[in-house]
Amino acid sequence: SAAALYQQVSASSWFTAETRGWAQEQRNELLAASANQDAHADAAHADDPDALGLVPPPPGQARAARSLATELERAQELAERGQWTAAIARAENASDLAPPGDLRALELLERLYAAVGDLQGQTEALGRQIVATADARARGELWHRRARVYRGFPDRQAEMYRCLKEAHAASPDDAALAHELHADAMARGDW
Question: Who contacts 178 (Cβ-Cβ below 8 Å, separation ≥6)?
Answer without folding.
Answer: 168, 172
